[in-house]
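Appendix B. Worked example

We walk through a single record from start to finish. Start with the input: the chain for histidine kinase, Streptomyces glaucosporus, length 431.
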Amino acid sequence: MRRLRLRWANLLLGGALLMPYFLLATVAMSVAVPDSDPFRHPGRQLAAYALALPLVTATALLLPPVRTLESAAARVLCTAPEAEPVPAPADSWAARRRTAAWFTLHLGLGALVSGASLAIPPAAAVLVTLPLSPGLRKLDWGWYGDTAGAALWTAPAAGAALLAALAAAVWGAGALLDRCAPALLGPTPADRLAAAEARAAALAARDRLARELHDSVGHALSAVALQAGAARTVLDSDPAFVRRALAAIEETARRTTGELDAVLGMLRDGEEPSRAPAGPTLAGLDGLLETTRAGGVPVALTASGPAAEILGTLPVLLSREAYRIVQEGLANALRHAGRVPVAVSLALDGPDRPGGPDGSGGSGRPDDRKLVITVENPALPEDGPRRPRRGGGTGLRGIGERAAALGGSAEAGAYDGRWRLTVRLPLRDNR
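Next comes the structure step. The output line below is what the pipeline stores for this chain.
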């Protein structure tokens, strides 16, 4: 019964919305044919109804918010579980055409059901009460047979049949609207593509924030643990080293707290980050290396060739991502190898050099150059000799994602007893 009531209400709403168009068509017919009176001739009423439907279609084609209004009504009154009406205005002609088809169907069926709902219940009431009311029998109802004979008692059954037919018509028309709602008010292929792009952008933003948190906080925790462990082992024998380690721990905690506040502030404010949050660049690389050295890890930095001159003039995005890659490479070395010597190398591979690592020269165009970042440390025995592999744990996967976002590549693996991370980033201006 609830579903029948909802469908009936939806159809009555359609009939109410059609009334202005019907009246406009009626006035137009009266002006065009002065002697006509549509309200006295059912045929002319049907003609006015037919003239009103094109006006309904034109309204939905010209007014995009029609889809918003109809979708809101369909969400409440249409009972099909698979219905997914789009609440946004129809912003394409494909969406407008589908909305126009729905609007015409809704108002057309609604007008017919509304007219039947006004006419059939009173007629059914008369038929049901006809055998019991002498006053009604005196009137000429045009009912079959003699109003004083046995045929009179068929009138109540006919009245009940009329009501049942009306309920069946409401149910069928409502079912048709329920079935058409997903197809006509649901998302178009363009809507689905836009929704997929929005979901992809949201997931990409979440991934960027996760990488920022992992790289900054993960490296800080690894460095602090290493520094605290080194300080504990020489607490009595080397107070100066302990003081340096504690100062490095303080500086690491302060810097990481600022980065963490920046990321969490974006989440608290409900922003949808289109780019990674601001962070340190290669200009702060010396501080990162000094913090790592304070934990007793020998770190050597090599900037070969023209790279030494351009590191301070790299695009901000590239410089920031390169800093994070070095940071995560150092964190991986600390986590998996401990206090072993780490070599960090920054170099250019491109037309300014005679050849890249594979011996091939650059193409001669400046924007073909690549910044090559290498982080290398002695491999642990359990690493064993194996072929180079891409990706790995969360940290290496994050490095690969950062490199891929800039059009570069990342490789990590054991080479001749040493663990080597190699990342190549194009120097061209990438968004």
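Two observations about the output. Residues 2-187 form one domain. Residues 352-364, 383-392 have pLDDT under 50 and may be disordered.
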